[in-house]
């Protein structure tokens, strides 16, 4: 992650050194193109899966009775939208605003997450609970990007509790004055103090197979909504991430 000092140095080079300006501009362009390309390649097979599901639904309408069907269709739609967003990386910080019920969004996420836990329950199941305050009013924001943030926090919480024998995750949301405050609390391993300073930096991961992008992207999204993303963590009680969004 570039620090402010790096960015100042880069801006200085961009202004004063024509060769450096050309190389930096090209590198940034290549980087954006690589992200767009990867997203595009993943989106293609996903679009095929989505079409197959729609055909299945048309030819066998009874599948709609299956209790996970609608959620599965919604999740595939969500992934398609997410990849669209990524391939539109050049506008990474641009929000696509709409007015929606944050209560409904969070309830849908909670159901989706609970289903995903059910499908992989093990000897030590995860106790997932949620309490979403009713009547929080309508919210203007980027629905898809906010869903991505909450799912990132829930997935991190899930990874964190895996080593515990009693595993708990709780999602809460409240309207406090002119803010929506969403908390994701787990009783997992906690974040060691020496790692706490860097967890929001991209590519910082302490998991095999992690990209270390989850929290970096989440912070950017919340800050683009003029909100804050913070956490409190201790070995023992676990970790609570707090998203605070102005209405
Ligand atoms: N709830 C949590 N409890 C304990 N540690 C956490 C928690 N959330 C994040 N972390 C730590 O912060 C690091 C960075 O998290 P981040 O979501 O950015 O990346 P990741 O989860 O490692 O990978 P990715 O999200 O890309 O799969 C994690 O590797 C983990 O060490
Ligand atoms: Mg993560």
From TrEMBL:
It catalyses: ATP + protein L-histidine = ADP + protein N-phospho-L-histidine. Its EC number is 2.7.13.3. InterPro entries: HATPase_C_sf (IPR036890), HATPase_dom (IPR003594), His_kinase_dom (IPR005467), HisK_dim/P_dom (IPR003661), HisK_dim/P_sf (IPR036097), Sig_transdc_His_kin-like_C (IPR004358). This is histidine kinase. Gene3D superfamilies: 1.10.287.130, Histidine kinase-like ATPase, C-terminal domain. Keywords: ATP-binding, Kinase, Nucleotide-binding, Phosphoprotein, Transferase, Two-component regulatory system. Coiled coil: none annotated. GO terms for molecular function: ATP binding; phosphorelay sensor kinase activity. It comes from [Ruminococcus] lactaris ATCC 29176. It holds the Pfam family HATPase_c.
């Amino acid at each position: 992650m570039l620090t402010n000092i790096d960015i100042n140095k880069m801006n200085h080079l961009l202004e004063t050194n024509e060769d450096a300006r050309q190389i930096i501009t090209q590198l940034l362009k290549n980087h954006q193109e690589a992200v767009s390309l990867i997203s595009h390649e993943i989106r293609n097979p996903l679009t095929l899966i989505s079409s197959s599901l729609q055909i299945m639904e048309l030819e066998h309408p009874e599948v709609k009775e299956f209790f996970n069907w609608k959620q599965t269709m919604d999740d595939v739609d969500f992934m398609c939208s997410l990849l669209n967003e990524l391939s539109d990386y050049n506008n990474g910080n641009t929000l696509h605003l709409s007015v929606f019920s944050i209560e409904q969004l969070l309830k849908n996420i909670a159901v989706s997450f609970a289903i995903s836990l059910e499908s992989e329950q093990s000897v030590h199941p995860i106790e997932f609970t949620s309490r979403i305050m009713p009547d929080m009013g309508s919210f203007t924001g980027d629905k898809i990007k906010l869903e991505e943030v909450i799912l990132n926090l829930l997935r991190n919480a899930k990874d964190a509790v895996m080593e515990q024998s009693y595993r708990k995750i709780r999602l809460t949301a409240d309207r406090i004055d002119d803010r929506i405050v969403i908390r994701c609390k787990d009783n997992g391993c906690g974040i060691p103090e020496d790692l706490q300073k860097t967890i929001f930096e991209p590519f910082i991961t302490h998991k095999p197979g992690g990209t270390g992008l989850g929290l970096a992207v989440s912070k950017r999204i919340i800050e683009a909504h003029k909100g804050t993303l913070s956490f409190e963590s201790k070995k023992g009680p676990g970790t609570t991430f707090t998203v605070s969004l102005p209405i």
